[in-house]
Amino acid sequence: MRMTHEEDAIPVGILTGFLGSGKTTALRRILEAEAFGDSAVLINEFGEVGLDHILVGEIAPDVVLLNSGCLCCTLRGELRDALSSLLTRRIRKEIPPFKRVIVETTGIAQPSLILSTVFADPQIRHHYTVGEVVTTVDAVHAPSQSRQEEVWLEQVASADDLLITKSDCIDESAREAIEELLIRANPTARRLYPDSPDMLNLFALNRRGEEAEQAKRRRLTALSMIPRRAHDKPHYTSVATVRVVSESPVDWESFGVWLSMLLHAHGNDILRVKGLLYIEESEGPVVIQGVQHVIHPPEHLASWEGLARATDLVFILRGLNPDLIQQSFDAFVRRPASTS
Asked: Which of 17, 86, 204, 254 is deepest in the core (most CB within 10 A)?
């Protein structure tokens, strides 16, 4: 398994969120920022993102140039075809160059299916890599959506960042309840509000070198705040969080076999896995991230500086016994394979 990705790979960020959760407003604000002038945006065919007021004209079929310099494409077919077409047009200089792609999904999309598109096709995987997953959360309707809409949980659990919208429409106690709900559904995600200065850093994670290293470290600090056991079942769904920690080095091949078997058997119900691996022959930790059946290419950090030297993984599960995750890890990964 490859441990790094091409330096020049273009990150594909995903903006998702349930119907009416404010993706349009969030995307508009992001694209108006000067830092995003080198972005390409893929929007769905249903016109859910209303960008007509900031378009300046068509420069190619289904492609328009925004005032900020971003490309905006209508996604009428498969995502794979759209990404390939963007790359071809860029190489032919039919459209301006871009450094990142942002895919705005429909309100009922499963992020795992979009992530799998980037990884399943060798040509796409060679040129693109998965970037940040941002999920908008409607503070007014999230409590009911979390009980009634299964895809809401998948969107929240898959996120790197949760953007909480419409919080000005609820009181402080309701705001605290939303925060608690989201912590239980995805304890590793960063929670932001539209007035947060960090909002303009969304999708800007195609950093290189030391800056990339520091960004990864900041995004993994949430692991240290999660209890070793956090599998109380919220009333809205049978979701559980389990943290697997091992201070002993793990064997890379054994871990890969274990995780592959686990996802093959239960991938639909493993909404998120995220954390660090302690591999003895590696100078720093290996970052592992995945959504359901899809595992991102593992990445190396250069050193353990500022981090505990241990395997530290967080799983967000639906309808699975968290104890079985720990038990299978202990049995398969911690114990050396028998030579007899």
From this structure: 17
Binned at pLDDT 50, 70 and 90, residue 48 comes out as very low
The structure tokens 């890969």 sit at 256
pLDDT tens for each residue of 62-105: 544 445 555 555 554 577 888 888 888 888 988 888 888 888 88
Q: Which amino acid is at 258?
A: W
Under DSSP, the state recorded for 202 is T
3-state secondary structure of 196: coil
CA–CA gap between residue 240 and residue 323 (Å, rounded): 10
Q: Report the distance separating Cα 15 and Cα 12, nearest Å.
A: 10
Helices assigned H by DSSP within 19-108: 23-32, 79-91
In this structure, are residues 229 and 242 in contact, taking their beta carbons and an 8 Å threshold? yes
The answer to whether the beta carbons of residues 285 and 275 sit under 8 Å apart is: no
Q: What SS3 class is residue 216?
A: helix
Which residues contact residue 90 at a Cβ distance below 8 angstroms, ignoring those fewer than 6 apart?
Answer: 97, 98
Give the predicted TM-score (pTM) of the model.
0.70
Strand, helix or coil at 148? helix
